[in-house]
Amino acid sequence: MPLFEYSALTDQGKTVTGILDCDSAQAARQKLRAGKLYPVDVTEVSNAASGVKGLHPKRILSLFMRVSAKDLTLATRQLSTLVASGFTLVSSLDTLIQLVETPQLKQVFSRIKDSIEEGGSFADALANYPGVFSPVYVNMVMAGEASGTLDIVLERLADIGEKQLALSNKVKAALTYPLLMTGIGIFILYFLMTVIVPKMAGIFEGMGGELPLPTRVLLNFGEFMSTFWWLPIVIVLILVIGFKQYKKSPKGALMIDRIILRLPLAGDLARKVAVTRFSRTLSSLLANGVSMLSAMDVARNVAGNLVLAEAAATAATEVEKGGELGEALSQSGVFPLLAVQMVRVGEKSGKLEEMLSRVADVYEGEVESSLQAMTSLIEPLIILFMGVTVGFIVIAICMPIFLMNDLIG
Fold first, then answer.
1. Architecture of domain 55-133 in this structure
2. What is the DSSP string of 157-206?
3. Could you tell me how far CA 276 lies from the centroid of its own chain?
4. What residue ranges do the domains of the chain occupy?
5. For 35, phi and psi rounded to 5 degrees?
6. What's the topology of domain 1-46?
7. pLDDT reported for residue 137
8. What is the CATH code of the structural domain delimited by 157-409?
9. What residues are paired with 17 via a beta bridge?
10. 335 with 329: CB under 8 angstroms?
């Protein structure tokens, strides 16, 4: 069914815009008039992505949809404010469609509004777009609809999204400078070995006599790099593609995540990030009435580490048998001791949701500290490596010159 973007006037003369899902432009105009809107312009939206025949438009949109976490979080915050202000869900979505600037998200919310007007639930409508709304999002909305606390749930979803964005931005900001330094350093060394060193080879060949070992090593390596300059690029591409293919398999992804957890500094950081995501998601789901087993199943899938996810799945099995969550997490040996002890305290005090939220706050702070410690170590290591490498090149170039001066003297 085609989409139509419209501009219309209300009874008060106010201009409103939005998107409708109708069979034709005439049907879109009739639908607007039925809603007491007076159409000014109705234009069919070009949708190249949905030009595939034989597929439902919702499924096609789901396949090609790319909505940033930032845009979705902002839209969730706006929708929460509208619902909390007393607007009906349909009216809130109608206003939200006008506020959203991202075309893809505007189309999604327009289709969701149509689904709700046809009698469907909000959660079911969201579930039609798994590429946009995560299982956590859908489950929390479902719980909010059932309990009549949709505005509170949307507010918490916005809080979760903002905290995850802040954590992701901290990680990116901390790693940007070391990665930039590494890239520049590799480029400089590549330039020296493929351009400068081969030119120096012609000068040294005319000097006669045997060159020092460091110089011979440098010249041979420079000649190899100038001839096979493409080889490192091909090797890197093969490694990257092979890594991605290996990670797609369940066994490969589990092995990679297990290796990551064993790395110094980086492993500790990855564990804390995973615990933060798991704890905050589980806390929010439990606080909104989702059952423990369902909440555990959703939370482990957003942890971001398969080793921790498997440990959470095993813990969920123990809880289903009547065991305690803290004891089950302790037996896995994957979750940090502090997190386990806090969960135990939460279970005994009857404040598990609150304690899980505190666990997320604690480890979110530790993630920032770990990032600072890691970057403070990486930067001097990069500088040391660059210094040693450039120093070797300088010595290898200068040694023949010093020997020639001694011979002349």
1. Up-down Bundle (1.20)
2. HHHHHHHHHHHHHHHHHHHHHHHHHHHHHHHHHHHIIIIIHHHHHHHHHT
3. 14
4. 1-46, 55-133, 157-409
5. -90, 15
6. Ubiquitin-like (UB roll) (3.10.20)
7. 84
8. 1.20.81.30
9. 7
10. yes
User: Is 140:151 a contact under the CB 8 Å cutoff?
Assistant: no
Tracing tokens 């706006």 back to the chain, one arrives at: 78
Two structure tokens written together for 360: 């997320």
**12: DSSP letter:** T
Confidence class for position 255, pLDDT limits 50, 70, 90:
very high
Q: Which amino acid is at 53?
A: K
Q: Is 279 in contact with 360 (CB distance < 8 Å)? A: yes
The span from the CA of 225 to the CA of 230, in Å, is 8
pTM confidence score: 0.61
Name residue, tokens 């070797």: 392
Specify the range with the lowest mean pLDDT, choosing from 19-33, 344-358, 365-379. 19-33
CB atoms within 10 A of CB 313: 15
From CA 255, how far away is CA 303, in angstroms rounded? 16
DSSP category for residue 32: H
- The predicted-structure confidence for 203-235, as pLDDT tens digits, reads as follows 766 665 677 888 888 888 877 877 887 888 899
Per-residue pLDDT of 256-282, as tens digits, reads: 999 999 988 788 888 998 898 889 888
CA 264 to chain centre: 23
DSSP 24: S
Amino acid at 68: S
DSSP string for residues in 251-312: HHHHHHHHHHHHSTTHHHHHHHHHHHHHHHHHHHHHHTT--HHHHHHHHHHTSS-HHHHHHH
Q: Are 305 and 260 contacting, i.e. CB atoms less than 8 angstroms apart?
A: yes
The two domains 1-46 and 55-133 share their CATH topology (first three levels equal): no
Tell me the backbone φ, ψ of residue 129, rounded to 5 degrees.
-130, 70
SS3 45: coil
What do you get for the CA distance between the two ends of the chain, in Å? 90
Residue labelled with tokens 């190249």: 48
Average pLDDT over residues 123-133: 86
Single-letter amino acid, residue 389: T
* More reliable by pLDDT, 68 or 351: 351
- Residue 197 near residue 216 (C-beta atoms within 8 A): no
Q: Are 204 and 198 in contact (CB under 8 A)?
A: no
